[in-house]
C-alpha cells in the first residue's frame, strides 16, 4: 500500500517536471541547489522572489512569440 | 547511452536496418502516389498520415544527419551553453524530450492551422505537397541550422548573430523587419478571432470568461500558493470547461444571448482595449496564467486531433485539384504560384521560428546531438499539425467549405443565393445543408465565417463527435475547437503587444532616453498605445473590408513571415560560408533562393498586378474611378468607405515595397561577405565559441 502511494507520488513528481519543462518554468529547488554548490556565499532568493524575477525576465524585453 | 545502443544494433544487423528504411521509404512513396493519382473516388485521410510520416522519418534520419555531420560536425563531447553558463535559471541542461515539448509548444501557433485551411481551396494536393516538401527541405532546415548556430554562440538571438556575422546594417534591418512583421501578425490573428466570435454568443461568452479565469489563476499563483503552476492550471482548465459548457446555456437563453452578441467591429475594439491592458498590467496577473493554460491546451488538443484522425480515418471530400488553381478562388486571390506558398506559411517554413530557435531553446539544450530532434524534429511535428489541419478542412464537403470560407462579397449574405452561387462553381451544396450545419454547431449562421478558424472547428467537431457524443455533441466540440484556437491566438496577441512595446521602447529610447525606461509609466502607456494603434488599425480595416479582410491581410502576413525566414536563411548561409563549408551552402542557399523568388513574385504582384483582387494599386485605382463616376458597387456603401479602401490599398502597397527593400538590403549586405570569401579568398573569423569538453555524462 505504502509503496503504491510512493509510486504515485513519484509519477506525479515526474509529470510536474515535464509540465514545468514544457512551459519553460524554472525549478526553484534546483536553483537553490545550484546556488548552494556554486555560490555558497550568496543567500538564495525566496520562492516568491525567484518567480517574480523569472516572470520579469520571461515577459521582458527579450521575450519571443510565435505565429 | 542511446547512441551506444544504436551503434551496437547497427553493427549487429545492418541488413535489417536497411530493410526497415527501404520499407519506410516504400510506404511513403506508395501513399504519395495514392494521394497524387487518385482522381475519381474519395480517399482516406490515412494516406496523408502515412505519406507525411514516412517522408518525415526518411528526411530526419538521413537529411538532418547529413546537415549535422557534414556541415557542423555536431559533437556529443562538446559542452553546450546550458553547461558552460549553467545558472540554474536561463541556462539549464534539459532532458531532450522535455525540451522538444517546450520547443514545439513555443513554435506552434495558429499559423499552421489557418494557412492550410485557406490553401484547401485549390484542392488537397498542392497544399499537401508543399507542407511536406517545404518542411523537410526549408522549414526544418531553417529551424535546425539556426538552433545550431545559436547553440554555438551562447544562445544569442538571430538579430545579434546577424549583427556579428554580417554587419550593423544587416542586423538593424533584421530588427526593423521583426517589429513590422509582429504588427501584421497580431492584426491578422486578431481578425481570425473576430471572425470566429462575431454574432456567436456561445463563443464570445466562453472567450470572455477566460479573462476572469486567468485573473483568478494569477492571484492564486501570486498570493494563495506561490509558484504552484500545475495546481493553478488544473483549476483553470476545469473552470474553462465549465465556461464552455455554460456557454450553451447562454446561447440558448433569450436574455443572456443578446448580451454576448456583438458585431465584428465591437469585438475588434474590445480586443484592442484588452491588448493595451495586457501590455501595461503586471504579467503575473493576466499574461503568465493565460500562457500556461494556452500551452497545455495547445499540446493537448493537437495530440487529441492526431489520435482522432487515426481512429476515425475520415474520407477526404475535396478533389485533388480544384479549378481555383488559376487564381480565381474566393478564399484567397492569386495563382498557385506564388500565392499557395505564401498562404500556407508556417506549416512549411516560418521565419518566426528563427526567433525561438535563437531564444530559449539553445540555452537549455544539454547535448549538441539533441539538436536534430529538437530543431529538425520540432518543425516536422509542426508540419504534421499543418497536414492535420488540411485533413480537417478537406473532409468537409467542398460546398460547405466554400460556404464557410468565402467572403460575403463573393457569395452574398442570403443562404439560398450563396448555395446556388457555390453550386454554380461546381461544388453542389443546398441551403438546407448549410442551415442544418449551423444548427448542429449552435451558431446563427456559418456563411462567410472567413479566417480558417470556424471551418477548422467544424472539421474537428466532425472528428471528435464521431468518437465521443455523436451529432448531439457537435456544438460542444465546435465551440471547444473555437475556444482552443482563440485562447492561443489571444495569448499571441497580448504577449506580442507587450514584446512590441519593449522593442519600440528600445528603438525610441535611442532618440529620447526617458521613453526607453520600462518602469516609467507614461512611457509604458505611450509606447503600448502606439503598438496597439498599429495592429488595431489593420484589424479594424480588416474587419470592415468589403472583400473580407483575410483576403488582403493573410497574404501580407504570409509574405512578411516568409521574408523573415529569408533573413534567417541569409544569416545561416553566411555562417556556413564563413565556416569554410561553401560546398554545402546549397543546404540553406536553395531554400533561400526559393523563398526570395516566391516572396518577390508575390510582393510584386500584390503591388503592381492589373487584377484588382490581387494588386493593391489597381484596387485603389478601380475604387477611385468608381467613386468619381458615382458607381460604387453594393459592397462599398459610402463615399467615406471608398476613400478608406483607396488609402488602405495604397498603404499596403507601400508597406509591401518597404518589406521587399528591407530584405534586399540584408541580402546585399550579406553577399558582400560571401564575395570576400569566394572571390578575395579571405578567411573571416566567425563568432563561434571554441570547443570545450563536456563534463555531463547524462541528463535526467
TrEMBL record, chain A:
- Any Pfam family hit: Sel_put
Its recorded name reads YbdD/YjiX family protein
Q: What is the lineage of its organism?
A: Bacteria, Bacillati, Bacillota, Bacilli, Bacillales
Task: Report the superkingdom from the record.
Answer: Bacteria
Q: What species was this sequence derived from?
A: Fictibacillus fluitans
InterPro entries, per the entry: Sel_put
TrEMBL record, chain B:
**Cellular location(s):** Cell membrane
The highest taxon in the source lineage is Bacteria
Looking up PANTHER family in the UniProt record yields:
INNER MEMBRANE PEPTIDE TRANSPORTER, PYRUVATE_PROTON SYMPORTER BTST
Q: What is its main location?
A: membrane
Q: What keywords sit in the KW lines?
A: Cell membrane, Membrane, Transmembrane, Transmembrane helix, Transport
Keyword Cell membrane in annotation = yes
| Residue ranges of the TM segments | 18-37, 43-63, 97-115, 127-151, 172-196, 202-220, 232-251, 267-288, 295-316, 336-356, 376-396, 476-499, 520-540, 552-577, 584-604, 653-671
User: Has UniProt tagged this entry with the keyword Nucleus?
Assistant: no
Q: Which organism is it from?
A: Fictibacillus fluitans
Question: Its family?
Answer: Belongs to the peptide transporter carbon starvation (CstA) (TC 2.A.114) family.
Q: How does it sit in the membrane?
A: Multi-pass membrane protein
Residues in CstA N-terminal domain copies: 44-602
Pfam family of the protein (one): CstA
Name of the protein in its database record: Carbon starvation CstA family protein
InterPro entries (alphabetical): CstA (IPR051605), CstA_N (IPR003706)
